[in-house]
Amino acid sequence: MILQLKPVIEVDTPKGRGHAEFLLDYGPEADLLWVVVMRDTGEIWTFRNADLRATANVSIGRKIAARTDR
Fold first, then answer.
1. What is the pLDDT tens value at each position of the chain, 70 positions in all?
2. Which whole-number Å values give the CA distances from 53 to 12, 16, 28, 37, 58, in the listed order?
3. Whose C-alpha in 8, 17, 28, 59 is 20 to 30 A from the C-alpha of 40?
């Protein structure tokens, strides 16, 4: 399944900050994949669910969470 995200979600990735535009779901035995347009370069990358973090959003009370796996 391909889901176009409207509005897009701003995310932090291993390559920097970007906007998640699409979500790819290949079923219960596969990771969710996020198609992200990188903010600084315009490159388009696909990341596994575990590689992304939503950015802080004070409007809805989401704070930056510390990553423990890095």
1. 999 999 999 999 999 999 999 999 999 999 999 999 999 999 999 999 999 998 877 677 667 655 555 4
2. 5, 11, 21, 14, 15
3. 59
In-domain check, residue 47: yes
Asked if 63 and 57 count as a contact pair (C-beta separation under 8 A), the reply is no
Structural domain span for residue 16: 2-54
Domain count within the chain: 1
Reported pTM: 0.81
Q: Which amino acid is at 19?
A: H
Asked, for residue 32, whether it belongs to a domain, the answer is yes
